[in-house]
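pipeline: protein-struct stage 2 | run 1193 | DsbA family protein
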Amino acid sequence: MSPATSDKSIYDGMSKKDRQALSRELARLRRIEEQKRRRRNKIIAIVVAVVAVVALLAGAAWAIYSTVRASFTGPANMLSDGIVLTGSGSAITATTTDAIQPGEQPVPSELDTATVLRLTEYVDYGSADVGTFETTNGASLQSYVSAGYASLELHPVALEGPDSYSARAANTIACVANAVPDAVLPVHNALIAKIADLPDGGLSNDELAKLVSDAGLTDDSVASCITGNEFSDWVTDSTARAQAGIPNADVETLAAAPLLIVDGKAYTGALDDPEALSTFITETYTEVADPPATDGTDPTAPADGTAPADGTAPADGTAPAE
């Protein structure tokens, strides 16, 4: 019999005293049942709240994990830690690749010297030396690429550390490469043009976003990537990798910028001497295209040290005529 029953027949035949005692007992039982109901409801409420909090924390944890994971994902089209630019006619386009995933290592570009010169350049956009080298030689190097005689692989690095202008500028290149890779070269040139008159501390992120816009790339996702330092972790990691080892080169590590590698050989001449660089490129090309014979002679190489006269390589620092 439920203590909540109100059937008056249960009192039939009972004395007044017994009826009062029974009523008290039934009231006590009702109070106990109500207390149990309230405890159950309280437990249910606590369980629901805990489940909700756990779900909320799980969602927050996933969001944090996704954000952290994204911060360690490299930019698309820079699987080698650099972006490869090739040309045909007058246009220069970027080679598209996957992004480096968290925990993975970059994949070095193949050093296939059978078709074109392979130019690899490590660039720190906060370096005055980079400004000198690029102002002197950048147009010539890019002319080789646009004519189809060379490929250029740009590696933005930050030798001044993760909190430097160099890091923010390298992040800018990464943001552009990730979203609109064919716009990397114009942005690269715009960053180079700014080196000579950089203010103390370099350009702010907002100024870098404006520089990209002024260079012809108006993309909100690129601007937010720049102002949010989206690839700052990748910049730090890729710079450290370059300082630990340079693939496909006769130099072991990156010690200073700029570093230009031509078909696996590092240029060590004067940064402001275009003739020295042209001679180096020509001699390097000749060695690769016409390796010495096993007897120590090289019957196919021109005696004057220039590249073959068949139009396959630049000999004077400019793209050869068609």
